[in-house]
Amino acid sequence: MDRTVRVGIVGAGFAANFHLRSYRQVQGVTVEVAAIVDVNKARAEDLAKRFGIPKCYDDYRYLLEDKSIQVVDLVVPNALHLPMVLQAAQADKHIICEKPLTGYFGQGEPDEKVGATPKKQMLQKVQEDLKKVTAVMAAHPVKFCYAENWVHAPAFKKATELMEKCFNSGTILEMRGEESHSGSHSEFAKWWRHAGGGAMARLGAHPLATGLFLKQFEGEKKYGRPILAREVWADGTDLTKTSAFAGTQGSPLVKGWGDVETWSQITVTYSDGTKGTFFAADDLLGGMESNMDIRLSNARVKFDLCPVRICQFYTVDPTPVKDVYFNEKQETKAGLSFPNPHEEWLLGYPHEIQDFMEAIAFDRQPLTGLDLAKQVVEVLYAGYVSIEEGRKVTLSSATENTEGTEIDR
Fold first, then answer.
1. Which fold has domain 149-342+369-399?
2. Is residue 402 pLDDT above 90, yes or no?
3. pTM value > 0.85
4. How many CA atoms lie within 13 A of 206 on its CB side?
5. What's the DSSP call for residue 41?
6. pLDDT in tens, 268-296
7. Checking DSSP bridges between strand 263-270 and strand 313-315, what pairing results, if any?
8. Pick the CATH number of 5-146 from 3.40.50.300, 2.60.40.2950, 3.40.50.720, 3.40.47.10
9. Residues 6+ apart with CB under 8 A from 107
């Protein structure tokens, strides 16, 4: 029996590159990337040539019609995630999807007005989306693989191994996580119409998902059921629109933001009363920071996805190393730096693809699936309600349905 997993990739941009490099590292499962799609067919053809992909298309519906392709890997703009997920599931294709599963991207209002939509209305819309995707996935028993790399990263896996041993006599009391850098250079990231939110959704989704996953993991290990998010309080703003920033000169931080926040904090209270606080910002110089501090009643675990300090380099004149890659978002190589010897591996990208291919080939659930993807979206948009209305928002997740979030109290 042919157990080859045949994949079609939709999108030929930045993320497609590291997904393709990750497919090459899969072990124990035969994987073939059979086709790639991009509206810019020339870009798809260039990637196909570099990675030896036999078929190129400019319409992803060709992948859905191709009976030999079992998996659709979506590395497309955020607003396309949900419609493509639904159509791929209806075509009985397994799905790999980057965050977010869905979001609010407008319902006919002018692009520049989307971010001004009441956040309560946004939350209601994404809740409807979540019910729809739940129904479609139930009718089509395919695998949904949520590409949250933090949960697959080696440092996080070691952290969970250590914490599992501590759960016999202890509990996670608090988590503090962050992902920040100097700002996205994509114009799409600057507008709600395209991104579905700002720093909280774009960056904060990673530590948030990891915190949600950890409490679910703890609950399942200790009680046979997940510990879920119960309540959200959040804050957010665009720091580049403050009077303080207006008085500065020559900042290398990204500017020109539209209607999204560049700084956010979201605090989650879980059903057992414990807390998680997650930061995300576009105000950080010196490269990207992705880290978490987990405080248990009987231990403490900290991990850094980046920067990692296993290699250190100091120079006054960075000219000799101008063509050497150090780290994502690092503005200068002068001074003390921590060049990453294998950034994609340490960030967990090959590990998540390995898990997804095994889940599909051997008919098991992926480590990060539909439930986590749905919870991240609901918590994020409850967070946006909290920012706008200045109050805590009670979630439906603690009762395992998406109908009861208290948005009207």
1. Dihydrodipicolinate Reductase; domain 2 (3.30.360)
2. no
3. yes
4. 24
5. H
6. 999 999 999 999 999 999 999 999 999 99
7. unpaired
8. 3.40.50.720
9. 125
